[in-house]
Design a protein that fits this description.
Pfam families: Glyoxalase (PF00903). This is VOC family protein. By secondary structure, the protein is an alpha/beta fold. The protein has one domain (7-118): 2,3-Dihydroxybiphenyl 1,2-Dioxygenase, domain 1 (Roll), CATH 3.10.180. 21% of the residues lie in helices and 27% in strands. The protein is built from 2 helices and 7 strands. It has helices spanning 15-26, 67-80; strands spanning 7-12, 37-41, 47-52, 60-64, 84-85, 104-108, 114-118. The model has no long low-confidence stretch (mean pLDDT 97).
Length: 125
Amino acid sequence: MAVLLDHIIVPARNKRVSAEFLAGILGVEAGEQTGPFIPVRTGNGVTLDYMDSADFHSHHCAFLVSEEEFDDIFNRIEKSGTRYYAHPDGSGPNEINRRDGGRGVYFDDPDGHAMEILTVPYGGW
């Protein structure tokens, strides 16, 4: 069997708020609470399991999307008033990047986790 990523735990000050924020931006649904987690399932079956936590460091999650999905997601980012930037260090505010011949953008979730959407994986196809 191949090794597949099943889920990651994402700590949040309010798991429902953070899960619904990300789900809304990505255009997917936040799931029902399972144990201490609120899951957000990606198209390849991996879940981001949000869990309440008072003490944590920020995480980074990147989502590979199609050009059309990028446009839809980016429009939701702009409409929400969410801060976005071109580079992982926060530089290039209100810009997207064109790394590896695609488009990418970073945005912050309510807890300061750096989320990213990109249309071409690092290093290109």
